[in-house]
Description:
Layout: H1 3-8, E1 17-18, H2 29-45, H3 52-71, E2 78-81, H4 84-92, E3 102-106, H5 111-124, E4 127-131, H6 140-154, E5 159-163, H7 177-186, E6 192-196, H8 214-217, E7 220-224, E8 236-240, H9 242-247, H10 283-298, H11 301-321, E9 325-327, E10 337-342, H12 347-355, E11 359-360, E12 362-365, E13 368-373, H13 380-399
Parallel strand pairs: 1-11, 3-4, 3-5, 5-6, 6-7
Antiparallel strand pairs: 2-8, 7-8, 9-10, 10-13, 12-13
Amino acid sequence: MTPAQLRDLMPALANKTYFNYGGQGPLPTPSLEAITASWRRIQELGPFTGDIWPWLEREVGSLRGTLAALCGVPPQRLALTENVTSGCVLPLWGLPWQAGDQLLISDAEHPGVVAACRELARREGLTIAALAVKDLRHGPEATATAVLQSLEAGLTPRPRLVVLSHLLWNTGQLMPIKAVAQRLGEHPRHPWLLVDAAQSVGSLALAEAGAGGAAALADIYAFTGHKWCCGPEGLGGVALSERMLTDSQPTMGGWRSLASETDGASAWHGDARRFEVATSCAPLLAGLRTSLELLEAVAPAPQRLELIQQRSHSLWRGLRRLPGIRPLLEEPPPAGLVSFVVDGMEPGDLVRRLGQQGIWLRTLDDPHCLRACTHITTSEQDLERLLEVLAELTAPCRES
């Protein structure tokens, strides 16, 4: 399958120029059909019969195995979740905290994760410090060095958790998760590492290094299936470390969290399933699995990343050629997020005017900029169209 053939399977890409993969990826028609077929199969078997449970167990096990392999972890370390937030918060809030413990949170994290950490700190009497990464604009080596220096500066005598995205949602910069995990492992208190993987799963090649991959080294590596994986909203996962399965206890549990659903005295599952709470939408499993299969049919993850980079680098270079437009990163993006600023124009107004011409990207508040995301289904015509219209819309600013 070619990227163009996959694009043809995505109705959301028809008659528009789409750059919002980091918000939500388009769902391919075969994935929608798989969801519908799964709903139908549930009704054929009976939604609560003896026949449904073996079928459901196979569905869950199949996707769990697929996502675990994608992250480079064994299936028992992968919990299915509804979104990134639940993947982060459910294990995070079950850890044994002590008043005065420090949370070191990067200054480029999504507000949803930050808010959860702030509330946790309020309840448990924890301190919060900032890990400065938002202003890093250069290539991978310089970025890695700066992140580790910032980490050293931020660690206090009582560090307990570091929160750092794998791919920053606002600047598009890649964080050296493996190096950070190694440094935390050398610290006497061995702080936990929580990684928001909303922008990395489906775009980066996670499991190429096997057990040494970033997803396998984090204590909490939470992601969703509806962004770069182009799956349905409402389904994601979290890869957990072995010590997380020992240290963290559920703060919100249900029948799926228990080793035995029918035993009122049952203990929690000993593996990652302890963080799967209760009934979820089973047909979504087939939808995400189908989307992942379609992506793999185009190319394995390393080659998909190369395709994504070809498109993001082309856009980055094109933006740099336009007067008054500056990409945030000084070097080509490491993945598909291209953030930029336009002199003399308010980002929200520019996004609105682009939308009027069928071109869809978004604004970000911190830093205040625009963000365009390129995927393997982004065409050369998409890039040319965006650059052409940007040039037209910004011309009055240059002339004045």
